[in-house]
Amino acid sequence: DAGVIQSPRHEVTEMGQEVTLRCKPISGHDYLFWYRQTMMRGLELLIYFNNNVPIDDSGMPEDRFSAKMPNASFSTLKIQPSEPRDSAVYFCASSLGVLWRNTGELFFGEGSRLTVL
Amino acid sequence: GENVEQHPSTLSVQEGDSAVIKCTYSDSASNYFPWYKQELGKGPQLIIDIRSNVGEKKDQRIAVTLNKTAKHFSLHITETQPEDSAVYFCAASIPNAGNMLTFGGGTRLMVKP
C-alpha cells in the first residue's frame, strides 16, 4: 500500500485566499484524522471521521476551517479565508479500528506545509 | 480531557549512549501509549506502543516502560546511532472517549557521532 497520500506537499498563498488540502487514506481504513503541527502548539487534532462521518470537530479553530469526507478514499480540509496564523504543517492520518484496541495504529501522511503571507 | 507532558524538549547524546524520554499523563483511564518518531520533512511514524495491561515492552534497541500508578511512561533507546536523530512524540488514548490520541510536546533527540 502507498500509505496516506496528501497534496499539495507545499502551499504558499496570500492572506484571504482559499486553501484546500487533500488526503487519500490507506485503503480499508475506517478512521481519518486531520492534525495541525506548529512549533508553539505541537500536534493538534482538528477533526476526525469514522466511515466518512465527522465524529469530533472540537479541534477545528473557527468557522474558517471546514473538512469533508465525501467517500472512503478522499477527504479535504479547507480554509477560507486563510490568515498568516494558519501557517503550519497539516497532517492527515488514518487507522483501521480504534487506536486503544489491540490492532489500532495511526498512520500519518507526509504532511502539507502551508504558508500564508 | 487528557493532558500529556513530555520531557526533555531537547536531548543530545553521544553515539552509543542511551537516551531516555519521559511522559506523564493526567487521566488514569488512559490505556494506550504509543511513541512516534518524526524525521525532518516527514510525518510521524509509530515506533513502539504499550497498553496498560503490561509494564514494559521491548523491540531491539527500543523499550517503553509504563507506571500506571504514577501515570508516567518512558521511552528508552540504547546504543544510539546518528539515524536515531529525530523528534519523538509520546501520546495517550482514553478508551470509550472517542478514537483520539493526545500528544506530548515532542523531544528533539540529537545523536552526535
Would you summarize the structure shown here?
The complex is a heterodimer of chains A (117) and B (113). Chain A has no helices and eleven strands.
Count the DSSP helices of chain A.
0
What separation lies between the terminal Cα atoms of chain A? 36 Å
Please state roughly what percent of the residues of chain A sit in beta strands, choosing from under 5%, 5-15%, 15-25%, 25-35%, 35-45% or over 45%.
over 45%
Oligomer: heterodimer
Unreliable stretches of chain B (pLDDT < 50, length at least 5) are none
Helix-strand pattern of chain A: EEEEEEEEEEE
Count of individual beta strands of chain A: 11
What's the number of extended β-strand segments of chain B? 11
Beta fraction of chain B = over 45%
Report the largest inter-chain contact: A-B, 24 and 25 residues
End-to-end distance of chain B, in Å? Answer: 41 Å
Task: Characterize the overall form of chain A.
Answer: globular
Total of helices of chain B: 0
Structural class by SSE content of chain B: mainly beta
Helix share, percent of chain B:
under 10%
Classify the secondary structure makeup of chain A into a structural class.
mainly beta
Overall spatial form of chain B: globular
Q: In this structure, how is the largest beta sheet of chain B organized? A: 6 strands, mixed
The major beta sheet of chain A can be summarized as: 7 strands, mixed
